[in-house]
Amino acid sequence: MSARIIDGRARAAELRAQIATEVGTLKSEHGWVPGLAVVLVGSDPASEVYVRMKGKATAEAGMAGFEHRLPSTVTQAALLDLIARLNADPAVHGILVQLPLPPQIDEAAVIDAIAIAKDVDGFHVQNAGRLATGQAAMVPCTPLGCLMLLRAELGSLEGRDALVIGRSNIVGKPMAQLLIRDSATVTVAHSRSRDLPGLCRRAEIVIAAVGRPRLVQGDWLKPGAVVIDVGVNRTPEGLVGDVDFEAARQVASAITPVPGGVGPMTIACLLANTLTAACRSAG
Ligand code: GUN
């Protein structure tokens, strides 16, 4: 079998075009546009790239972008002060603090200082709790993008065996919650799981989000599985995912490439969350 390659770039482009149309309508009919503030602390090269891509996507969607750069030596108080100002700014509908933050900063305290209605990353403890308890929540962008790709590929996820590899607050945990909400049967594995190949072989859906280059082998997969690779690992051979793509595509029925799979969906979902936040604030 040769797997269908899931084109995240194309799906993301469709979504971004839809969002741009809605932003255009808001602007022409109501005279305002959604605004997204992105906060970058320090100069981590990967974070710089992500922030630049997010800023570009915001502008292309017709939204207002506000970029705030702070030195890596910034104090917690100064960062919290900036967030308080963004919370109070009516032109800012979404706030994103790029992670990771330097060691002197309490990451959880910073995330939880963001107004939950402006928390377009969905990382605030109240948004995480709302998602876990089935209430309306701002949903983290990467797992939301993965869910959209899965639904497009499979239709209903009801009753399907899904394996999430990774238990981070950003991807693994919210991914598991979203799959449960869609009535999948969900297993969450991680670096300490005992029999990862065995767990994989039982899964119709594998979502790899552990940050270990090419961890998931082709012969770990159930034939016909749908594989979503969230990994972005920089190696001497270039950017690779958490899945051995060449081997996996011989076994899977569909698989996301790296790059061009999940990454573009994350950015499209960030714009979608910003538009949602903006519309809610107006309503
Ligand atoms: N760092 C890595 N991924 C993310 C993300 O989705 N949002 C933010 N804010 N920081 C990140």
From TrEMBL:
Protein keywords: Amino-acid biosynthesis, Histidine biosynthesis, Hydrolase, Methionine biosynthesis, Multifunctional enzyme, NADP, One-carbon metabolism, Oxidoreductase, Purine biosynthesis
Gene Ontology BP terms: L-histidine biosynthetic process; methionine biosynthetic process; purine nucleotide biosynthetic process; tetrahydrofolate interconversion
Domain Tetrahydrofolate dehydrogenase/cyclohydrolase catalytic positions: 6-121
InterPro entries linked to this entry: Aminoacid_DH-like_N_sf, NAD(P)-bd_dom_sf, THF_DH/CycHdrlase, THF_DH/CycHdrlase_cat_dom, THF_DH/CycHdrlase_CS, THF_DH/CycHdrlase_NAD-bd_dom
GO molecular function: methenyltetrahydrofolate cyclohydrolase activity; methylenetetrahydrofolate dehydrogenase (NADP+) activity
Enzyme Commission numbers on file: 1.5.1.5, 3.5.4.9
CDD domains membership: NAD_bind_m-THF_DH_Cyclohyd
Domain Tetrahydrofolate dehydrogenase/cyclohydrolase NAD(P)-binding stretches: 140-280
Any Pfam family matching the protein: THF_DHG_CYH
Pathway(s): One-carbon metabolism; tetrahydrofolate interconversion
Reaction(s) catalysed (UniProt annotation): (6R)-5,10-methylene-5,6,7,8-tetrahydrofolate + NADP(+) = (6R)-5,10-methenyltetrahydrofolate + NADPH; (6R)-5,10-methenyltetrahydrofolate + H2O = (6R)-10-formyltetrahydrofolate + H(+)
PROSITE patterns: THF_DHG_CYH_2 (PS00767)
Gene Ontology CC: one annotated term: cytosol
Binding-site positions, NADP(+): G166, R167, S168, V232
SUPFAM superfamilies (alphabetical): Aminoacid dehydrogenase-like, N-terminal domain, NAD(P)-binding Rossmann-fold domains
Family to which the UniProt record says this protein belongs: Belongs to the tetrahydrofolate dehydrogenase/cyclohydrolase family.
Assembly behavior: Homodimer.
Role, per record: Catalyzes the oxidation of 5,10-methylenetetrahydrofolate to 5,10-methenyltetrahydrofolate and then the hydrolysis of 5,10-methenyltetrahydrofolate to 10-formyltetrahydrofolate.
Protein name (database record): Bifunctional protein FolD
Organism: Paracoccus suum
Lineage, highest ranks first: Bacteria, Pseudomonadati, Pseudomonadota, Alphaproteobacteria, Rhodobacterales
